[in-house]
Specification:
Oligomer: single chain
CATH architecture: 3-Layer(aba) Sandwich
Shape: globular
Low-confidence stretches: none
CATH superfamily: Zn peptidases
Strand order of the largest sheet: 1-2-4-3-5-10-6-9
Mean pLDDT: 93
Number of strands: 10
């Protein structure tokens, strides 16, 4: 089935709902900057004591509506509770969403702008990130118009067993798994799992995940769902894969 590029997601309405729910649950708003008159906000919830730090982002590409809606659904369900310190970025590319396109209004792909940033959005994001601690786990949520199933990128320096297989298998409860031997021009390491070149010095451009892996932690994942599938199924897959990754991280940190 050929994908139909329709992206009915209002960034203003999404952010309003996220702000209301986050305030109810005790999150703090941290203003990173503005894109025109749209506030770029990080939502943080810090819990007293030695708790893990988890970072999740969405809304980087304006034709990928399921990730911010999945973050909102997890927030509404009370998933981001007092077990951890949470750092959430639900909407970074409001002009992309307003026009239903991957890039921002200037045609910049924000997820290629983290090495030498030129976009207002990524500059604001990086200024905020530089003030943050290292994270135990970073999750970047994305979608792919060319994919037929779920796949993920894994960047890890950890000696603990990789989580990638359990995350992939969790997605399979809701959507198909990408079957190809190559995905997005890259050879797979396992079915639907890519472990890309993680040395930033060897890359001409940086996506968000590489920046996070370089400066903010030893474990970073990018999840990708196929945009042509029903949005409700993609949201369910994100909810399941995020909860699986976080639950696995708690087990890793248990003495």
């Amino acid at each position: 089935m050929p994908p139909v590029k329709a992206c009915p997601l209002d960034p203003v309405a999404l952010l309003a709902r996220f702000r209301a729910e986050a305030a109810r649950l005790g999150f703090r708003e941290e203003l990173m900057g503005y894109r025109d008159d749209f506030p770029l906000i990080a939502f943080t919830k810090r819990t007293a004591g030695p708790h893990p730090r988890f970072y999740l982002s969405s809304g980087v590409h304006g034709d990928e509506p399921a990730p911010p809606e999945a973050l909102l659904a997890l927030l509404q369900a009370g998933f981001f509770d007092d077990r951890a310190n949470w750092f959430l970025i639900p909407m970074l590319n409001p002009t992309g969403f307003s026009s239903g396109q991957r890039e921002n209004a200037e045609g910049i792909d924000l997820n290629r702008d983290y090495l030498s940033p030129v976009s207002v959005e990524v500059k604001a994001h990086l200024n905020w990130l530089r003030k943050q601690p290292r994270f135990n786990l970073s999750l970047c949520l994305h979608e792919d118009w060319e994919a037929t199933g779920f796949y993920l990128y894994e960047l890890s320096r950890q000696s603990v067993p990789h989580k990638a297989r359990s995350i992939r298998d969790a997605a399979a409860w809701h959507i198909p798994i990408e079957p190809g031997e190559q995905i997005d021009g890259r050879p797979i390491d396992e079915t639907a799992i890519i472990r890309p070149q993680s040395d930033p010095a060897l890359r001409d451009t940086w996506p968000e995940a590489i920046y996070l892996f370089k400066y903010h932690g030893d474990l970073s994942y990018t999840f990708e769902t196929p945009s042509a599938l029903p949005r409700a199924d993609r949201i369910s897959a994100f909810k399941k894969t995020v909860s699986t990754a976080i639950s696995s991280s708690f087990l890793d940190l248990t003495p």
